[in-house]
Design a protein that fits this description.
With about 220 residues, this protein is of the alpha/beta class. The protein has one domain: Rossmann fold (3-Layer(aba) Sandwich), CATH 3.40.50. About 50% of the residues lie in helices and about 15% in strands. A five-stranded parallel sheet has the order 2-3-1-4-8, sandwiched between helices. The chain has a three-stranded antiparallel sheet with strand order 6-5-7.
């Protein structure tokens, strides 16, 4: 029986289904699903030194640095170990190189990097139908699920809303940032670790995508 891949990066544009698929993989394989956005909010809520540093930057409208994001991830790994499924991280080549250096120091290199590819048209269509939980990060489609804006989140009970960054103008900016900063991460891994880099069409049905992801994670 092949060993299950334990250190996984799942990349993709907005609305490609990263969070949904990461949740399913986490449940199926017992690998912790890690979102850097959730980690950052947790550090802030707990009032840790990292959280206070992040608050100081974001309260001034500044982005936290690549090195800082990786520090948060490294802090999580110190507490939880080096089994993870990163959702949408690393977002920049700088974050990828910092992450590689951290994992090398821990003698725990990445096992798998997967890109969920989706056309801009499909992204815009999905975003128009998306509602989200700002507390736990869960997302739902108003056309595929029975939930509506203002309903309680089935996972944690918080109110489901339409995210501000899902508005049309904000989405277009996010797509520009994705192309300029995150797509080069794919090129980075294809150059430095081509054997672990895979692409999947995220326009397929959710179950078909999950089956392909499971095959890769299960090292079948």
């Amino acid at each position: 029986m092949n060993a299950v891949n334990q250190r996984i990066v799942l990349l993709g544009p907005p609305a490609s289904g990263k969070g949904t698929q990461a949740d399913r993989l986490s449940e199926a394989f017992g690998i912790p699903h890690v979102s850097t956005g959730v980690l950052l909010r947790s550090e802030c809520d707990r009032g840790t030194a990292l959280g206070r540093e992040a608050d100081a930057a974001t309260s001034k409208g500044l982005l936290v640095s690549d090195e800082f994001v990786v520090r948060i991830v490294a802090n999580w790994m110190q507490e939880h170990g080096t089994r993870f499924l990163f959702d949408g991280f690393p977002r920049t080549v700088g974050q990828a190189t910092h992450l590689d250096a951290t994992l090398i120091s821990l003698k725990s290199p990445l096992d798998l990097v997967i890109l969920l590819e989706l056309s801009d048209g499909a992204i815009r269509s999905r975003i128009r139908e998306r509602i989200s939980c700002l507390k736990c990060g869960a997302t739902y489609s108003t056309s595929l699920h029975t939930h509506a804006e203002g309903d309680p989140c089935p996972r944690c009970g918080a109110v489901l809303v339409r995210r501000n960054d899902d508005a049309s103008e904000a989405l277009e900016q996010r797509l520009i940032v994705y192309r300029d900063l995150t797509l080069p991460v794919v090129g980075y891994y294809e150059r430095t670790a081509p054997g672990i880099m895979h692409r999947i069409d995220a326009g397929e049905g959710s179950d078909a995508i999950f089956a392909e992801l499971s095959r890769l994670v299960g090292n079948e």
